[in-house]
Amino acid sequence: MRGMVAWLQRLLICITLVLAASAMASADPLPSWDDSAAKQSIIAFVDAVTTLGEDYVVPEERIAVFDNDGTLWCEQPIYFQFIFAIDRVKALAPEHPDWKDRQPFAALLADDMKGLLASGEKGLGEIMAATHAGSTTEAFAATVSDWLSTARHPRFNRPYTDLAYQPMLELLAYLRANDFKTFIVSGGGVEFMRGFAEHTYGIPPEQVVGSSGATKFQLGPDGKPEIVKEAKVEFVDDGPGKPVGINRFIGRRPIFAFGNSDGDQQMLEWTAAGDGRRFVGLVHHTDGVREYAYDRTSPIGKLDKALDEANTRDWTVVDMKVDWRKIFPFD
Amino acid sequence: MRGMVAWLQRLLICITLVLAASAMASADPLPSWDDSAAKQSIIAFVDAVTTLGEDYVVPEERIAVFDNDGTLWCEQPIYFQFIFAIDRVKALAPEHPDWKDRQPFAALLADDMKGLLASGEKGLGEIMAATHAGSTTEAFAATVSDWLSTARHPRFNRPYTDLAYQPMLELLAYLRANDFKTFIVSGGGVEFMRGFAEHTYGIPPEQVVGSSGATKFQLGPDGKPEIVKEAKVEFVDDGPGKPVGINRFIGRRPIFAFGNSDGDQQMLEWTAAGDGRRFVGLVHHTDGVREYAYDRTSPIGKLDKALDEANTRDWTVVDMKVDWRKIFPFD
Predict the structure, then answer these.
(1) What is the reported pTM?
(2) How large is the ipTM?
(3) Selection from A273, A264, A258 nearest residue A301 by Cα
């Protein structure tokens, strides 16, 4: 009897999926994309690799990788994870009275951004260590989740996860509907991103590749095993680190890659250099009204060398202002 | 028209899957397992977490992890990857005339296993570096693939991939049919295991977690991007390294874990310590006739502390001789 019920459940699920899939196939899968060259290049690629023919790619090899900050969600006025770190320093300050007289914490607590930036990489490292290390992985995940549910973006006054790009959410769903496996490959902290990637993008934790600190397995005070986050940086998933991270965590070369800054250049080159048809895309932030306009000289998400390379090759450059009818789900 | 064809293709695939699934549901999913307590504990667990009720687990959380050497395939008379390394030293020897007079290579080339083992960890490290580093990841994958297609196990005189355990192949398929995502978490080299895991176990490269050496992204002589394997050890996925690797690569705690040696103990503890119902299993090599019999004093796959812990807890210990009707697919 159980078997019969399970049989019917599966058949029902399948028919639903098929109807949904065929509905998607007939409707426009990318409604927030203007019907421009960028959108056409995406659809032409997906049709080519999913249709039996010279460009056909078996589903197992349909690996798509996406940078996160500035590609899947907004990264201005500064990386959201850094805002999380700033909020954490303020929340933890009462337990650290010495921070009032110690840089870079003193500058941060006084909202002195100039002084904070003056502390440079070393200062940034101290802030990341103070806010991302010392707790168990489970306690950290809870902290990230609390922050995401309460923090608001200074300009849009919405939860940061509302600032995912609607056209990219449609692209992720379109690729998965065509049997692609979608991955994040980002310089952001892997445990920070895993706090929202599944809910916001439909990307499960095991498909999130990012920068990470060292961790240690130990028996906790209660004798229960736990994994503790340490202050030591273990892997920086940026620049040349991105293809290295792809090789380490995914173990196959992607056939589809999307980024938005020079930190994505080597990931895009690695993807483009594979045999067979490939798709390589860049988001160019050109819309200062609906989002932000920045590229070659921006301290955040600098897009200079990669833009030059894209222009000399057949990479797809998305002009946000022109190619995206809608930027955020709430627009 | 294309949409219609795709629609029909999908429906056909689905109906096939449903029929297959329901066929499996009715037939015995684990025919090579004796109808003993071990088999019953597996089926009871899978029924519990896949049936709506207090033990139900949503499919996304159905993470199952398996050690490889001695758990999914044979590890005697010595880890197969070490035999690969030995064969590689012999194949590369002509390019390294100095090896004839340099330990540990001289001992290895003279088939002096005693002398080779006398070189200890340092010697083993030199052999691994000489055989696993210096090439691109793609060249290394080709070397592994060539070796797997030609090398033969000294006792069974078959390709090493024939020495996967039939009962575990059935278990992997049974778990996947119940919407589990199956991962390898092994001390073996990740790039070595990725050379056969998909074909032999149906586990894709991105679900293989293992030990690894550092790699470097660079532009090759032809100006094409490449990833080169370096001699530096980057991560040892053994003992406490296994839960660390699970956290780093999978990002969720498994609900099902299977191992066979003390190197798996912390992975099993980490799995067992999660909330809700868990399955923890150990393969005990008790069949010297059909395979090998070894445990507490074996230099390879030593099973001592983990066996004691299993006996004091509700872990499932598989008695190979009694619980497995068939060990290898060719039996």
Answers:
(1) 0.92
(2) 0.91
(3) A264
